[in-house]
Amino acid sequence: MDYIKKLSRFIIPYKRYGILNIISNIFYALFSTLAMISLMPMINVLFGEGKKVTEKPIYEGIKNIKSYAEDSINYIITTTSEEYGAQRSLLYMIILIISLFLLKNLFNYLGLYFITFLRNGVLKDLRNEIYNKVTHLPISYYSEKKKGDIIARISGDVNEVKNSLLAVLELIVKEPLTILFAIIAMFMISVKLTIFVFLFIPVSGFIISRIGKSLKKKSNRVQTEQGIFLSTLEETLSGLKVIKGFNAEKKFNDEFQKSTNRFYNFSNILMNRQNLASPTSEVLGIITIAVLLWYGGSMVLVDKTLSGGAFIGYIGLAWQILTPAKAISKASYKVKAGNAAADRVLEILNTESPLKDKPDAKVKSDFKSQLNINNISFKYEEDYVLKNFNLNVPKGKSVALVGQSGSGKSTIANLVTRFYDVNEGSISIDGENIKGLTKHSLRNLMGLVTQDSILFNDTIKNNVLLGKEDATNDEVIDALKIANAWEFVKELPNGIDTNIGDSGNKLSGGQKQRLSIARAVLKNPPIMILDEATSALDTESERLVQDALENMMKNRTSIVIAHRLSTIQNADLIVVMQKGEIVEQGTHTELLTKQGVYKKLVEMQSFE
Asked: Which residue intervals define the domain ABC transmembrane type-1 in the entry (predicted)?
């Protein structure tokens, strides 16, 4: 249960509900025991076995509380029977029993009522923190992790932790107290009989603990497999067009079914192990009761050292121990499953981001002179994709990066926006190393338009508002006009309030890209980064998008990563890259005159 300590910061805000639950469970355990004990005088009344007490007993301290309690009840029964008859005494006993059972169930409900707020509160806060962590971890983290596994952790695993929280409180408060109070009452009734019964309890405990020993490992396998099939589902939904286009439905179906079959087998093993807990503890319990009936029955019938009412009450208390004992064995399994789930949740929460802001990180709110890339080298894994790379981007100038795929162009965009950190060298803005700035303020200075138009299942307006949340409708429309998007948006049924579907799939590629540009225009950052923003478009869409880009880049500092060279002829500086290094740089005209790599790239593409 060490994971409870690890999750304590999520539990502490709801501790008052935990305390109220514990108080309710204490009263539940107390009234459970009293309800069983109250059966004894009723049976004695029925069978006339009660001791007649005609004088009101005197309380003589805690040592004599047992005899004082018995004499008090017998005094009430004796005086009531003599005055009103035995039937009136029986009625009083029945009212007492009903009252005690009502109180027992009332406190049971209150315990569950209070714990609901704690469990659901922890669930909410855990999910919120994981989601916050997911959005703050670097992009490199997700190149190693499957998205479906992350989804499984934020949904299934967190839910498992929630369920185990109730089990923990049952394990440490409710059921142990119920057993403890019952045992105290059993000792008060007969020490000899209780010691005899207790010879069997260690055997039961050993058998139950053997069943649950490997549960955490089996539970972890189930949760891991859940992450695998959710990953397959997520990839299927993301790539449905490709799957259908290549008739690959069977391949993906087979992969999904292999995973669900493994999940089926692991779940069967886990559930059957859990299901074994209840019948095992019940069989062990009934064996204990059987032995109790034989030994206790001889005390009533032969030795005459125990009354019939006391023995029936004792049997009730012994049986009452069985229910919480079964609950404890079930709860211990839930705790083990919750422990496995908590490990997976905490793995995300405890992951340290290598891109974390420094404690003394500065907030930079403006861009004054230039962006410098100073002798940087960078590798994603083993091989360097950039080597000793240098570039200066003065304010108000546009610099284009061109070259073959894999030359490191897009990596520059990832490093300047600090999605990754350089291995060697530095990147600075106005002479300040970007590692010394807060990521939030750094990215506030930049607008990003990528090759893939990343849009969300929401309205056009809300997608564009990501650039500036408090923008008015007029500002949104102005941004759409600059991006050449207003022409098609105004024709839509609900204009800027039209929902564009999942990933914007209700729109064409060119329309999606122009919305991405409108989003960047509305943000109005001093530095614009365009990562192959037109490479996926047809000629007509490219012209519209290119016009939009030129509108946006006027008097703005720009880093343009281009595949189509027709889009960057007017750049102030064109940098030609090859295998992570600069091989040529200059204006379009200067580079053509050099008759080098750039000239060859131009000749390979047709200009219109």
From this structure: 19-337
